[in-house]
Design brief:
By secondary structure, the protein is mostly helical. It folds into 2 domains: 79 residues, no CATH class; 42 residues. It has 5 helices and 2 strands; from the N terminus they run ααββααα. The chain has a two-stranded antiparallel sheet. The longest helix has 42 residues. The protein starts with a helix and ends with a helix. The model has no long low-confidence stretch (mean pLDDT 78).
């Protein structure tokens, strides 16, 4: 729920409490029969109010988090559980595939550097010399 909706709800709650306080203060001077009828009407209104039904959410996002749930009071059916499990498995296999591809790419890059060092005219010891490295850095500018 965004901030504006939350502020609107708080404002409506305050207004409702103010109105209820005024009604309660005015009800003190009413006859007993009227107060009993008001009490009975209040109980009927509370009993007939709509009860909000919450449905479980398979994927819930909150802030920067993402989570899978099996539901709250009402449990997900077998299809919901199967689809959630399948999505989780695909995510795990996708992450493993990405890791493998990056490892392979890194190994190829290192192999290219090794080939370049071994086939170069300079001996590998030249790259260990700090003066030569400084020369390479100044030469690149």
């Amino acid at each position: 729920m965004n901030q504006k909706n939350r502020q609107l709800e708080l404002l409506m709650d305050r207004q409702g409490m103010r109105l209820a306080g005024q009604l309660n203060a005015g009800a003190a001077g009413l006859p007993h029969a009227v107060t009993e009828r008001l009490r009975a009407a209040r109980e009927r209104a509370l009993a007939s109010r709509k009860v909000e039904v919450s449905r479980p959410v398979a994927v819930a996002s909150r802030g920067g988090e993402l989570s899978l749930s099996w539901g709250g009071e009402e449990q997900m059916g077998w299809f919901g559980r199967l689809s959630s499990t399948l999505a989780l498995c695909l995510l795990v296999f996708g992450m493993l595939g990405i890791n493998e591809a990056q490892s392979e790419m890194r190994a190829r890059e290192l192999a290219e550097v090794d080939v370049a060092l071994l086939t170069d005219e300079l001996p590998p010891a030249a790259f260990a010399d700090s003066g030569f490295l400084q020369f390479l850095q100044s030469d690149e500018l």
